[in-house]
Structure formats: C-alpha cells, structure tokens
C-alpha cells in the first residue's frame, strides 16, 4: 500500500513539472513559437536534463525494544473472619393483640319518603272539526241496449226402429235314466234262548233289535222273568234293497235366442239462429262535491295536580357492638444461637504478570529519496527579446 502511494505521488510530481515546463517556456504563460506568446521571433522548444529526487521504499530489518509480561507465582497472607455458633437461653418479651368486645352509639341518616301535592300547567292540542267542500271525479256507469244474433242447438225427439237379440225358455222332452230301489221285506227268526230266565234279558238283547209284543199275550217287554221263554221266540222284519236303472221321460226348459224389433226415442240437436238484446255498460266522468271534515288543532293550557314523593334525611341513633384488639405484653424463654467472629490468618498463592524489556527483530519499510535525471522542455535562447522573457529558468 505504501509503495502504491509513493508511485502515485511521483507520477503526480512528474506531471506537474512537465505541465509547468510546457506552459512556462516563456514568461507569458503560453508556449513559444506562436503569436500568443507576444514574441516577434519564432523560438523552437529546447530539451534539457534535470535531476529530481524520487522516493524509493526499501524493506529493512531492525531491532525494536518491547515490553513482554511473564507469569510469576507469589505468596501472601490474609486474615479471614469465621463465625462460631453459641447457643444460650434468653427471656423474650412479645406483644399479642387480644380481641375485646365494646359498644358504641352511632348516628346514621335514613331517607324518609315525604309525599306532597304539586300543581303543574301543561299544554294540549285540542282538535276542532269543520266541514269543507271538496270536489272529486267519479266514473258514472251508463247502460245502453245492444242486439246480437247467436246460434243455439235446439233438441228434437225422433222415433227410430231397431232389432235386438232376446232369450226365451222353450220346454223340451228328454229321457233320463233313474236309479230305483225295488227291494222287499224279509222275516228273520231269532235264535232260541239257551239260558235260564235269570239271564233271559241279556240273551234277548243279543238278537239285535228290541222284541215286540209277545205272542203269549203277556204284554211285557223282553227281559221280564214272567215271559222270558215266550219273548225269545219273536220274529224280526228287515228290508232287502235292489237298485235298478229305469228310463224316465222328463220335460226341461232350454234357452232360445231370437231377433225382436223394437222402437226407441232419439234426441237430435239442430242449429237455430236467434236474436237477443243485452245491456252494455259505459263509464262517464262526473264531477261531484263532497262534504269533508277537516281537523284543526289549537293549543290550550290546562292544570293538573299530582303527588310527588321525595326523600328527606333523618338522623337516628343505634347501639353497635364492635371488637377491638388490645395489645398485651407477655414474656417467654427462647433459645438463641449467636455467631461470634474469630480472626484466622491464612496463606495463599497468586500469579502476577511481571513486565520485562526484550529486543526483537521486525521488518520495516523505509523510504529513501533517490536522485533521478529526467528530460524536460527548456526555453530557447532567443526568448530574451520577448517583452516578458523566460526569466532565466532554463539557464
């Protein structure tokens, strides 16, 4: 960075010198050889050598004295206070608050309602009505007669003939086969009794049917001991069936269809033109006058009386019980631990940084001024005739 600054400084000095030499070749401040210089003769610029001092940086090694700290261990004595606990019994006085009930008289205020009559005036809007004629327009219906033709369907009754199918019943003789029972009656004699009269009733009942009147004329039913022997000899009648198919003539009624003519009435509608007259309504505007009541209001003062309730303050007295705390001093014994300070001497080591002066080599940049020869423009020898002159700068 220092080398760059020196180079820039040298370049700036060279540029300044070159400019001053070029511009100050003559004392007039303009270059020679022209009419601007004011010289009557033309002078060509001359070149001359000039020695200038140019800075030059060089790195050198030098010895520098500096302060360096070194760690050193030392000892020192110090005094420490230690606390030694000691317990003892002491009397302690303390104060307690004891509650006590007392009575006091208080005065307080209450709001007592008081009613009074107040008269107040107020205004009201009193309506008054009056009749006013107000015209209005109405539509009045006007009826007129109008005729028109129309067609109607007029019903007429006609008699027509037609044929219809009818059903009638006709007797027909037919032969049917009928089953006929041609049976006959048979007489069956029972088995004679083999047992005594003691069991005749049971034996007679085994015949299958009840005995009729005995032939001996006893007139009693079977099972009696008096006619048991005769009753067991009664006969029984039974029917023997014999079914036979025989033809029988039967007359039955059968349905028969036939065509029968008949007359019926038919209503037929025919068109007929008729004329009718009807009313037609049309409206016409008509102006009429109606009576209308108009309401108008006017102010009227009135007076009303009403009751107002107000609250008035009254002082009253009452007994109030309250509790206060009265301080009382009491004494008690208490063990207290006290700490006494005792001085103790201790030794400790500590480290300190002791400064020492030492020499060390460092690299330093040194600036030297070196002479350097440069060529610059110089004034001509004929510039003495100028009115201003070069003032002998090149000489």
What order do the SSEs take from the amino end to the carboxyl end, as H and E?
HEEHHEE
Give start-end ranges of low-pLDDT stretches.
19-42, 195-232, 381-395
* Tally of DSSP β-strands: 4
The percent of residues in helical segments reads under 10%
Q: Shape, please?
A: elongated
The N- to C-terminal Cα distance equals 39 Å
Mean pLDDT: 77
Total number of helices:
3
Radius of gyration: 87 Å
Looking at this protein, list some descriptive labels.
395 residues, mainly beta, two-stranded antiparallel sheet, disordered C terminus
Q: What does this entry look like structurally?
A:
Residues 19-42, 195-232 and 381-395 have low confidence and may be disordered. The longest helix is centred in the N-terminal third of the chain and has 22 residues, at 2-23. Helix content is 8%, strand content 71%. Among the domains are: 2-64 and 365-385, no CATH class; 186-235, no CATH class. The chain has a two-stranded antiparallel sheet with strand order 1-4. A two-stranded antiparallel sheet has the order 2-3. It is built from 3 helices and 4 strands, in the order H-E-E-H-H-E-E. It is mainly beta and 395 residues long.
